[in-house]
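Listing 4. Sequential folding, example run.
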Amino acid sequence: MKDTAIPKRDLPKGGGTARTPVPMLDLKRQYEPLRAELMEALGRVLETQQFILGEQVEAFERAAAEQLGVKHALGCSSGTDALWLALAGAGRAAMTRPVFKNEN
C-alpha cells in the first residue's frame, strides 16, 4: 500500500489542515519555442551595448504598438514605472510608499 501520509513540512505550524502545494509556473515550457528568437534579439542588444533607448528598444516599442493596435508604446524599466506613466498620462497623482525589509 502506498504511503499517503502528508509530509511534516506541508503541515501548518500549530496544527490545522494540510496545505496543498501549488505547482510553480513552468516558464521553461513557454521559453523553449521562443529561445532562438530571444537569443538572437539579446545578441543584437549585447553587440550594440545599447541597453537603454537605441534601435532595438525602438523596434520593440514599434512592434508592441502594432501588436496592441495603438499609435505608440513605451518600454519601461519596471512595472512600477509603467503604472506611474499611465497615471501621469491620465493626469492623476501617484503616491507610493517605500517597502522596507522586516527586521524582526
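-- end of first protein; second protein begins --
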Amino acid sequence: MSEKITARHLGRKAILYVRQSSAYQVSHNLESQKLQYAMQDRLRQLGWREIEVIDDDLGRSAAGTVPRAGFERLAYGFLSYAEGCYAAGLALAGLGLARRRKLH
C-alpha cells in the first residue's frame, strides 16, 4: 500500500476498461489486448481484490452513433465513486501512440 492508495481505496471495487475500436484490432492487435487485460495483475499488485473488467466495447468505434454499453458502465462507475462504490478506474489510453513510439 502507498500513501496515495489507502485501505479505504482498497476496500472498494476497481474498474478496468478494455477496448479496441475495430474488429480488425480485436483480431490482429493481440498484444494490445493482452496488455490491457494484464492491468488486472497491476491492480492486484497494488492491493485490490475486487476488480470489475469491462470489455463490452471490444470492436466498437467511438465514432458515430454506435452505442457502447461498456463505456456507459464505466461512466456510471465513476459517478458511483462519489457514492463510495468504486475506488479506481483504469483504461489504457494512447496505446496507439505508445506503439508508434516503440518503432522509433
